[in-house]
Amino acid sequence: MATDTALAWDRYAADYQGLARLSTDTAHYGPDVPGEDELRLLGDLKGKRVLELGCGAAQCSIAFAKSGATAVGVDLSASQLARARQLCESEEVKVELRQGDMADLAFLRADSIDVAFSSYAFQYVEDLNRVFRQVHRVLKVGAPLVFSLPHPVWSVVDEASETPAIGRSYFDSSPIEPSGGQVQAVRYPHTFSELYMGLNRASYRVELVLEPEPKATHHSAFWHEAMSRVPPTLIMRARKEGN
After folding, report:
1. Residue 43: closest CA among 24, 22, 69, 23
2. Looking at the whole model, is its pTM more than 0.90?
3. What is the pLDDT of residues 75-102, one digit of tens each?
4. What confidence tens digit (pLDDT) does each residue in 168-177 have?
5. Domain ranges of the chain
6. Nearest Cα to 42, choosing from 114, 91, 93?
7. Which of 199, 171, 215, 183 is nearest to 28 (CA)?
8. One-character DSSP codes across 63-91
9. pLDDT at 1
10. Closest-CA residue to 104 (of 82, 132, 134)
11. Residue 200 pLDDT > 80, yes or no?
12. Quick check: 232 and 33 in contact, CB under 8 A?
């Protein structure tokens, strides 16, 4: 599925970037929810080595670099990374960009990363436990993995409906295929217990769980009326424990 995901994002990159219009001044956690400038989940990044998983056009990594971090971004999509290189040049910052799977981190030494971060990319990963294990290897002991993804409850929402409606069971673990001929990647729903237990088994200590309420104004192009009733985004912070 990795190749299909890469192909889908290669085709969708231009449309997505045009709709999202993501800032390069602060990390984002999802559509219509507060960003790092408000949530302050990563701490002071100056002098730290930060790994972004599923970096896309690297807007978050660029923000990390602006904060004084050494940023490393990994993404499957060549088109997204091409845009990332253009952005890095225009913003006059350096980000190490790697094309590849989020679980393929052999290019990084063990215990070499101060912070691992991912925004809305884990939904495209079927085997998240493998990602958790590989990230654990490269993180320093006590270092955090901070990530966001669509809230597990959001998977029940019928996004094709203009009004809030339930479209599938929360317990349905089958992949979510793009509808209406859209050029988008297949998504994999993950229950909260699956996320929590996966982190626990991979020797992380979950220390923070957030379900941020969407902003009341200035809705993005991805706004859906159901977001006012169902939490759209889940954010978790977990720290590596031991080796």
Report:
1. 69
2. yes
3. 999 999 999 999 999 999 999 999 999 9
4. 899 999 998 8
5. 2-240
6. 114
7. 215
8. HHHHTT-EEEEEES-HHHHHHHHHHHHHH
9. 39
10. 134
11. yes
12. yes
CATH, range 2-240 = 3.40.50.150
Angstrom distances, CA of residue 239 to CA of 3, 69, 140: 30, 19, 9
For the segment 136-151, what is each residue's pLDDT rounded down to a tens digit?
999 999 999 999 999 9
What is the pLDDT averaged over residues 199-207? Answer: 97
- What contacts 193, CB < 8 A, 6 or more positions away? none
Tokens of 148: 């966001």
Assess contact for 242 and 141: CB atoms under 8 A.
Answer: yes
* Least confident piece of the model among 118-122, 183-187, 198-202: 183-187
- Mean pLDDT, the chain, as a whole number? 93
Q: What is the identity of the amino acid at 105? A: L
Query: Which band of pLDDT confidence, cut at 50, 70 and 90, is reported for residue 180?
Result: low
| Residue 94 identity (one-letter amino acid) | K
Residue owning tokens 């990044």: 45
Q: Residue 206 is encoded by which pair of tokens?
A: 């979950």
Are 233 and 118 in contact by the 8 Å Cβ rule? The answer is: no
Closest-CA residue to 25 (of 14, 12, 38): 38
Please report, as a single letter, which amino acid is at residue 190: H
**Cα distance between residue 106 and residue 90, in whole Å:** 30
> What letter represents residue 69's amino acid?
A
Burial category of 181 from C-beta neighbours within 10 Å (exposed 0-12, middle 13-18, buried 19 and up): exposed
**b/e burial code for range 159-176 (CB count within 10 A of at least 16 → b):** eeeeeeeeeeeeeeeeeb
